[in-house]
Each structure stands twice: as C-alpha cells, then as structure tokens.
Amino acid sequence: MTSEVNTPGAESPSPLMRRWESASLGTVWRRPGDWFTPAGEALAEALEARLDTAPAAFRLGTARAMAGVGITEAIDDMAVLFRAAGYESAPIRTLRSLCEGWTEGEATHRVAPLMTDAESGLGTVEYLITRLAEIYGAAERDGDDVPVSHALVLVDVAAADTDPWQRMARNAAIGRALQDAYGKGHPMARVSDGVYAVLVARGPEMGSGVASLRDHISHRATQMRVGNLMRQPPRVWIESLPGTHDYVRDVLESLQR
Hints:
Elements: H1 15-27, H2 38-48, H3 54-66, H4 71-84, H5 92-111, H6 125-142, H7 146-149, E1 150-156, H8 164-182, E2 188-192, E3 195-201, H9 206-223, E4 235-240, H10 248-254
Helix pairs in contact: 1-4, 2-3, 3-5, 4-5, 8-9
C-alpha cells in the first residue's frame, strides 16, 4: 500500500511572508532551514490585519528560543518583517513581547531541551548528543574506543528553493524512511534542514548498508511523492566520531552549515 504525505497547509505563504523570508535569509538569518515557524506566520498575519502584534511576537520569541536561536538574531529578524511591511521599526511593546517570550522559551529550553524533532519524528541534535554520551561513558568503563566501534551515517537530501510546507513534507518522509530502515528507538536525529544522522556500530557490512540505505530513501521518497523535493540521488556517507565526547557537539555543529 502506497503511503502519501500531503503538503501541510492549504494556502501558500502570503506575499509579506515571502518578502520577510527573502530579506531575512539574505541579511540577518544564519540557518535557512530553521527560519519558518507557525508563530512567525501568525505575527505576519496580525501585522497585515493591523491587529495587536504583541501576543504573536511573544509566541515568536518563545519559538525562537526553543529552537536555539539567539535573542539578537530573533530581534533582527523581526525588524526585517516590519521593514518588509513598510514600517520603519517594530513598536516598542511588540519588541518587548518578543524578548519576554524569548526569555520564557530559553528558560524552558535550558531545563528541558527538546528531544524530538516535530517535523521528522526523529531525535534532535541534543537527543543524539545525549545518546552519544552514554556510548562514550560505556566505552570508557569497558576500555573500548568509540571511533573504532561506532560511526555516524549521514544523509543529505537538501535541495534549493523548497518552501516551508515542502520542507515539512520532505522531513516527514525522510524520518519515516530512516525509521523503516533502522527501527524506532534507534539513535538518529535531524541535524539541520535536509541533513540527518544515524548512530551505527561499525562492522564489515557497513559499506553495503550505506548503499542499501541510499536506495531505500529514494524508493520511500517516490512512494510518498516527495522525490522532487530532494536531491537525487541522496548523499549518504560515513562520518567518523571524535576520540572523546567533548568534541561531539563540534562535529554536529559543523554539519549544520
């Protein structure tokens, strides 16, 4: 039975959303893959409707903090929206609400970091770092060497010019494909837009497994009708792990760019 992922949302982004996204990605925003959030869309809608923008700005600030976006980047991005709408700057009350929302989201993010990526159903980078800490801890107790025993399988399906709805559909499809291939609960995560990592044990069949995974992802994407939203063929490779867990975050951050 063929599965299908429908593109989320019934309508295309508004002209203001498109202007905001284009201007922000071209100036102040650092990672194109995590720019879109429904909270941002709500703020743009409130602005277009000439409603009070402060409540939506609070939600946007919270969403930005939960995604790990810094307060300066969040403020600069919102300023781009108001300029795109023809205003010289954002109202002080709206700016304050954004900062208050970011502060609340940052506190929550520190106490309970997100472990599941909502779009793909896979783990987050924080989840993968935590699982790797367990692997390194066990290896240290047993006298093993993690770079010898384990590796990351990286999958890159990123394609240019995908809108937020297409990105969500693609992430959902690739998440399903990886769960099919490795099983739910296996350590894997969405590292950035279109890039995914799977923690695997090294072995003689690892190379052939990578080739099989590439074919499986392509097949699954065709089944779910998102093959045109991703690079073909998918890029799949083996990434070595560092000698100690201290450098794991550096490795994963290098893959987010």
